[in-house]
Amino acid sequence: MNGEMTAVPLRTRRLDLEPLRVEHADEMGPLLDDPVLHTYTGGEPATPAQLRERYRRMTAERSPDGRQTWLNWILRRRADEAAVGTVQATVERDGDDLVAEIAWVVARPHQRQGYAREAGQAMTAWLREQGVVVVRAHVHPGHAASQAVAQAVGLRRTSTVQDGEVRWEAGHLAIDIGDVRAAAGRLRGVAHRTPVATSTTLDDRTGGRIFVKCENLQRTGSFKVRGAYNALARFTSGQRSAGVVAYSSGNHGQAVALAARLLGIPAVIVMPSDARPIKMAATRGYGADIVIYDRYTEDREAIGAALAAERGLTLVPPFDHPHVMAGQGTAALELLEQVREIDGGGLDVLVVPLGGGGLLSGCATVVADELPGCRIIGVEPAAGNDVQQSLRQGEIVHIDVPRTIADGAQTRHAGVFTFPVLQALVDDVVTVTDDQLVDAMRFVAERMKLVVEPTGALGIAAALNGAVAVRGWRVGVVASGGNVDVDRLADLFGPR
Ligand SMILES: Cc1ncc(COP(=O)(O)O)c(C=O)c1O
Questions:
Q1: Which of 140, 258, 304, 475 suits a disulfide with 247, CB 3.0-4.6 Å?
Q2: Are residues 213 and 349 in the same domain?
Q3: Whole-prediction pTM
Q4: Active-site annotation holds for 224
Q5: Atom 6 in ligand 1: residue holding the nearest Cα
Q6: Are 215 and 481 in contact (CB under 8 A)?
Q7: Are both 96 and 205 inside the same structural domain?
C-alpha cells in the first residue's frame, strides 16, 4: 500500500458512458429538500439550501452543460427514493485510461442500503458489458452512499480526504464479508451471541439512540474469543498437535487459551508482567502455559516468534491476521442483526474500540457490505493515537508504548493486514482521555449495570463526550471487554 495521494496524470479522453436519455440536472431540486440528505452529509453539516448550492456547483464543474450521465437513468427508476450525484472516475477500456462520470446514489434510510448496492451492481454489469474496468475514482467524502457505489464497482478507498475528495482504487484487502460469514458459522455454539443493551439515560445524555453490543459478557470477558477460535479452528492437524503461541496484554491470551482448550490444542501465552491479575489467573485456569515479559523493555513479537521457532508452535497474533480479523467482525454481524430484531432499523454510525485494528477491520468489513451508508469510527486512547496518525499520513506510523489505562489499546502500530482495511473502509478515528474512560466506566456501571474494562469503554466514552457526533443518530457501540478486577475498579473510581 503506498501513501502517495496526488492524482496520476493520465492519457485521457472523454468516455461517453451515457446509457440512456439525459435530462437537466435541475430535477434534483425537490429531492435535495429531503431532510434525510442532511443526515447523510455526516461530517459536513449543511442546510438543504447549502446542499442544493453545493450540488449545483459540483454539477456545473463536472458537467458544464448541466447534463448528467447515469443521473436520469437512476432517477427515472426510483426518483421518489433517491438523490444522485456524480464523481469523476478513471476507467480502463482496451488498455486505455479514460475519464468517465460515475454516479452515486443517496437513498432514503429504509432503502438506502439495498438501493445503493442495487445501483452499484447495475452499474458494474453495464460497465462490464462496455468492456470498461473502473480503476480509480475521486469520491466526495460527505456522501455515504457514494462509498457504497464505489465499492460495488470494485474499488477500495486508498486515501484520506484531499481537496475535498477521497481516492478509491482497485485492489484486494485481507478479508471480505465471505470470510466473516464463514467465521460466524465456525463460532456458532462456541461464542455467545452477546446481548445488545439500550438505556434511556444514555440516549438522553447523548441525544442519540445508542445500541451497546455487550462483548464484556462474551466468553473470556471480551470479543477476542471470536478471532482466536476462528484462527485455531483453521489449524491443520499438524499445527493442532504441535500447539499454539500467542502474545497478549491479556484478553487475546485468555481467548487463545480457551479456544485451544476447546479444540484440544496445547497453548503458550506470552503476557506482560503488569497484566491484570484477573487476566493472568483466567489464562492459567484455561490450562495454558504463561511466559512473562516486560512490556516497556522487551519485544513481545520477538519472544513469540522465538518460541514458535524453537518449539514448532503456530503463532496467532492478537490482531494482524486475516482469520483473527474475520472472527472479530462477527460481533458487528450479530449487532446489525440484533438491531434489526429490536426495531427493524439500521445504524447511522458504528463506534468501535481500536488497538491494532483487528476488531475494527472486521466490523468495517461487515458494515461496508451490509450497511454501506453507516459511518464506522474507531476510538483510540488519546495517549496512543497511532492509527489516527497513520490514516492522516497514509502509512503505518509507529509510536512508543502509550501510557494509558486502556491496556488493550497499548499497541504501537497498526498491522500490515489491518491497516489497508482501515484505510479503505473506516471513516474516522477519534480519541478519548483516560479520565473520560473512567467516567464512561462509571456511567455504564451505575446506569446500565455493566462492568466494562477501560479499553472496552473507548466507544462509550467517545459517544458520551461528543468525540463522535451521535445526536439524532442511531449508533452502535461495541463495549469490547469487561476484564477488570474489583480492586482495580475501586482504584479507578476512588472517592470523588
Ligand atoms: C477489551 C478490548 N477492546 C479492544 C481491543 C483492541 O482490539 P484490536 O487490537 O483488535 O484493535 C482489545 C485488545 O486487546 C481489547 O482487549
A1: 304
A2: yes
A3: 0.71
A4: yes
A5: 355
A6: yes
A7: no
